[in-house]
UniProtKB/TrEMBL annotation:
Reactions the enzyme catalyzes: chloride(in) = chloride(out); a 1,2-diacyl-sn-glycero-3-phospho-(1D-myo-inositol)(in) = a 1,2-diacyl-sn-glycero-3-phospho-(1D-myo-inositol)(out); K(+)(in) = K(+)(out); a 1,2-diacyl-sn-glycero-3-phosphocholine(in) = a 1,2-diacyl-sn-glycero-3-phosphocholine(out)
An annotated GO cellular component: mitochondrial outer membrane
Name of the protein in question: Non-selective voltage-gated ion channel VDAC2
Sequence similarity: Belongs to the eukaryotic mitochondrial porin family.
Keywords, comma-separated and alphabetical: Acetylation, Ion transport, Membrane, Mitochondrion, Mitochondrion outer membrane, NAD, Nucleotide-binding, Porin, Transmembrane, Transmembrane beta strand, Transport
InterPro entries listed in its UniProt record: Porin_dom_sf (IPR023614), Porin_Euk (IPR001925), Porin_Euk/Tom40 (IPR027246)
A Pfam family reported for this protein in Swiss-Prot or TrEMBL: Porin_3
Annotated PROSITE patterns: EUKARYOTIC_PORIN
Localization in the cell: Mitochondrion outer membrane
Predominant place of localization: mitochondrion
Function comment: Catalyzes the scrambling of phospholipids across the outer mitochondrial membrane; the mechanism is unrelated to channel activity and is capable of translocating both anionic and zwitterionic phospholipids.
Entry keyword annotation includes Plastid: no
Amino acid sequence: MINIPLSHPVIYTCHLASIMRSTTVKIGRRLSFGATGTMAVPPSYADLGKSARDIFNKGYGFGLVKLDVKTKSATGVEFATSGSSNTDSGKVNGSLETKYKWGEYGLTFTEKWNTDNTLGTEIAIEDQIAKGLKLTFDTTFSPNTGKKSGKVKAAYKREYVNLGCDVDFDFAGPAIHGSAVVGYEGWLAGYQMTFDSAKSKLTKNNFAVGYKTGDFQLHTNVNDGSEFAGSIYQKVSDKMETAVNLAWTSGNNSTRFGIAAKYQLDSHASISAKVNNSSLVGVGYTQTLRPGVKLTLSALVDGKNINAGGHKLGLGLELEA
């Protein structure tokens, strides 16, 4: 048995990846490529490692009673309403979003409102100026405080590359967010930065490296030179998915480790489970009651304080028509 210190998460992740990989993947299997062997468009920087994060995050709603409703009118306008109640604080939050797509011109209009009384408007145009280019203008306004904000986003993607640049407009000075991801033969490398013009310095400086096939993903990243993290996603079978994540922060020398799995019981039901090094155990059950109606039940148990209470339950209901 090999003992690997958790203070080296990238090394630990790579060793764990090689173990998982060697037990399930046959030589020559390359599911991330098409029949011609060409590389698909790499994900955006924010979506690197997303498959592993989804196993940890989706199917749970600890401490919340939540209702989501999605409908679509005959004219093509999409409505999305969400409401949730925090079982600890009793606070109720809600949001409403309307979206209309003008496919002929590649335009999407979105209006948003939430219970904090914040109004948002978003206009996006995609694949019109250039293939793979998406431009978005996003504004928010809070009538209670009079606060306004605006953001211009640009994203460009094609084979082997995915680029993004956002500009946040502020009275003190705009903030520029940039990212780039390149991919070749399953390997991915990305960089993300934020430049605050008011302070004239970089406030975010992140790097990431990963490897992706159809049933296996490895992702490692370094944030601001102080946080080192890694994740592994493995689709063991058509019904079973697993994920591992690991993070270490140099400032306080803290290590975070978690394992999660999702199992598809049948075409209508699935169960999820996860545990971390703080002995927090989460379980979730998702059932499609009928087409367009989905129920989610979840629970979070503190394994170190079983008898002390403080455990959380969650209930979610999704309706779509």
